[in-house]
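WARN no homologs supplied; continuing
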Amino acid sequence: MVQNYTKPLPYMMKQDSYPSKVFAAWLRVTFKPLLFKRLPTIVYGGFKHGYIANFIQKHKKAYPYFVKLDIQKFYPSIDHHHLIVETQMAYKALLGLHYVPRKFKQQFLPFIQQFFLEFPLQKQGLPLNSSVSKALAPLLYVPFFLELKKNDQIKFMVYVDDILLLCNSKQVALDTYIKIFNYLKSIELSVNLTKLQQGYFSSSQLTYCGYHFAGGYVAISPEKLAVFKAKIISYCEQNLIVNETVFIKNLNRLINGFGHYYKNAHVKSVYQRLDSFIRARVRKCYLNSLRSKPTNNYLKSVGLRSLFDIKLAKKPIIARLTKKDYAFKEPNKQLKINRLQNEIYIQLLEKMIHQNSEIIGKLNLCVKELVALNKSLMNV
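OK structure emitted
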C-alpha cells in the first residue's frame, strides 16, 4: 500500500540522494548514543511503546503543573546558519568539551553544505520527508536543554516540535517558558500560541503525542481516533478484494501500528468498539467485491488482527519506568564496532590526554618556581 505524503506550502518535500542517506546514517551513529545517555527525553530514533505515557504518569505527582508548547512551522522556519552552529555546539556539549573537535567539523561541514545545495530554498527550511531533516532538527535544542536539565524543579520531553514541561509550581513553569521563548527567538523560531496548553493535571486536560491525559486516565486523543477511523474507511472504500491475502495484510499494517502505539493506555473498551467498527467496514468491502458476508471466525482465520488481542498481549496498563528504559543498549561485543563510534571514543581519550598534559605543565612550572626559590634562599 503506497502512501503519498503531501502538505501545503510552506512545507517542502525532497527525496534523499545517496550522499544524503549516508550523511543521515552518520548523524544517527554519532549522536544517538550521546543523546540516549545525556538527554534521554529528547526523541531521537524513537521510544518504546508506552514510553511517553509512562513518563508523564510517573512524574505528574511530583511535577503537577504542565506546559505544552508547539513551534510554529518548525521545519520551514529552521535557519541553515543556526542549524550548522547549534549542531556543532550540541556535539561539543554532549561530549563535555570546550571546543568542537576538528574531525567532526571535517566530516560534518562538507555533508551539510552539499545537503543544503540540493534543497531548492536557500538559507532557510528543511524538507519534511528527509532522513537528514529528522536527524538534524532535534539537535537545535540540545545545548539549551542540557542546561535546563540541571534544574531539578523541571522534567521535560521533546518530540520534534512539541515540547512538554512538567514543573513543581506555576511560577517555575512561567520562568521556564520565558527562557524557551527567548531561546527560540534567538534562533529565529517562535511558539505557536494557538496550540499552547497549560494547567494542573488535577484540573486540566493534556493532549500530547496522540495521548489524552485527564485525571488519572490515559486515553487516545479524539483527533487521532478520528484519523484512524478515516484511514480504515478510506482503505476499505478504495480497495476491492481481488486478492484476499494482500487486502488483509495491508489492513493489518494500519491495525498493528495504531494498536501497539496506544496499547499501554486505558483502551480496552475503545479497542473493543474499534474492532467492531473495523469488522463492519471489512464486511461491507466483501459485499462490494461480490463475496459472501464473512463471520468473525472466518475473519480471524484469514489473519485479520484484533486491537483487543494486541491490548491483552501487554501485561501492565501503565508500568513504572526503570533505568533500562533510559539506558542506551550497547551493541554485542562480538560484533564489529562501527568506525564512527570508534572516533567518538578516540576524541574522549584525546580530551583526557589534553587535560593530563595541562596538569603536567602546571606541575613543571611549580617545580621551576620552587627551584628558583631555593636558589634565592641559598644566596641570602
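The longest helix spans residues 339-379.
OK
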